[in-house]
Design brief:
By secondary structure, this protein is an alpha/beta fold. It has a single domain, classed as Metal-dependent hydrolases (TIM Barrel, Alpha-Beta Barrel), CATH 3.20.20. It has 14 helices and 9 strands. It has helices at 10-15, 31-36, 54-74, 84-92, 112-120, 151-163, 174-183, 207-215, 226-229, 231-240, 247-251, 259-273, 303-309, 314-328, and strands at residues 4-8, 41-47, 78-80, 96-103, 123-127, 166-168, 188-193, 219-222, 278-280. Strands 1, 2, 3, 4, 5, 6, 7, 8 and 9 form a 9-stranded parallel β-sheet that branches. The model has no long low-confidence stretch (mean pLDDT 98).
Length: 329
């Protein structure tokens, strides 16, 4: 079965020194784990921390791109892809396709030339913001600076439509998502998140926005992040006082959800959006804790069986696991 992950943070770990050609103990993603998990294509996100602004943010994006290029070119069974045809070609040759996204449009500054250059270098979606409001729009964890899209953000949406760059509304405020739905002539993507009706995390989207993205032809990618999956776990983690890096202790908390919680969010998204508008966007390598039994990308091959046991048809499962996003791409 073809499997596509619409969001992982591999470049961030690459630039920190991880060799993705090796099977790294305790890592969530590397090329051997992608192969074991049956993952045929994965979007590697060029993540820009909110603390970086202007030229510093842009320089960081290009540094991530350079290191990602170096490592992909070293792996004999991985190759870049920029469209559905190249993904299919890689698949026929037994290669994992690495696609590129930019996470946090602050790296664009207010310069469409940077946008077009990144597109020419293979970047196919831009996550408009991250953990803070930026020059484009409000974040779901921001201060509501613009009340949605900024004036530049509205111009950017139109320019992204023009060049064929996908607009990713993960991390956006509800008001930003509504503005994008109103302005964009092309389908939106929500590359990594879950259903707010099942778990109240601010990064999750309410049913009406999930439905509106689907109605516009877009795809919503369900994440594996436990705090998106379970309010009980998010609450227990917060009260535990555990800090970043205490991964083993986070995994030992009794409320840690498993694959069944991810299946529940996928099933809810199918109910709200229709099965042809749901995908998988794990957020691996960008999260400090994973669901029980899904510690790495090597476990993604377990998901189709779990969805079948939940009652989904083979054709719906094939769409969710990757064909839906590939169709949009």
């Amino acid at each position: 079965m073809f499997i596509l992950d619409s969001h992982c943070d591999a470049p961030m770990q690459m630039i920190r020194g991880r060799d993705y050609c090796k099977d790294n103990e305790g890592a969530q993603v590397d090329f051997p784990k992608l192969r074991r998990g049956g993952v045929d294509a994965s979007f590697f996100a060029l993540y820009i921390p909110a603390s970086l602004k202007g030229a510093d943010a842009t320089a960081h994006a290009y540094s991530l791109l350079s290191e990602t290029t170096r490592q992909v070119e070293r792996c004999e069974y991985a190759s870049f892809a920029a469209d559905a045809a190249s993904v299919r070609a890689n698949l026929e040759e037994g290669r994992i396709s690495v696609l590129l996204g930019l996470e946090n449009g602050s790296a664009l500054q207010e310069d469409f030339d940077i946008l077009c250059d990144l597109y020419a270098k293979g970047v196919r979606y831009v996550t408009l913001t991250h953990s803070e409001d930026n020059q484009i729009c409000d974040s779901c964890t921001g201060q509501g600076t613009w009340g949605g899209l900024s004036p530049f953000g509205r111009e950017l949406v139109r320019e992204m439509n023009r060049i064929g760059m996908l607009i990713d509304v993960a991390h956006c405020s509800d008001a930003t998502v509504r503005d994008c739905l109103e302005i964009s002539d092309s389908p939106l993507v929500y590359t990594h998140g879950c259903c707010r009706s099942l778990s109240s995390h601010r990064r999750n989207l309410p049913d009406d926005l999930l439905s509106a993205i689907a109605h516009g032809g877009g795809v919503v990618g369900m994440s594996v992040y436990p705090c998106f999956l379970s309010d009980a776990y998010a609450s227990e983690l917060e009260s535990s006082g555990l800090k970043e890096g205490e991964w083993d202790k986070m995994m030992e908390l009794p409320s840690l959800p498993g694959i069944d919680a991810m299946v529940s969010h996928i099933m809810k998204a199918v109910e709200v959006c229709g099965g042809e508008h749901v995908g998988i966007g794990t957020d691996y390598d960008g999260i400090e804790v994973t669901p029980r039994g899904m510690q790495s990308a090597s476990a993604l091959c377990l998901l189709p069986r779990a969805l079948k046991e939940a009652g989904l048809s083979s054709s719906l499962i094939e769409g969710i696991m990757g064909e839906n996003f590939l169709r949009l791409l």
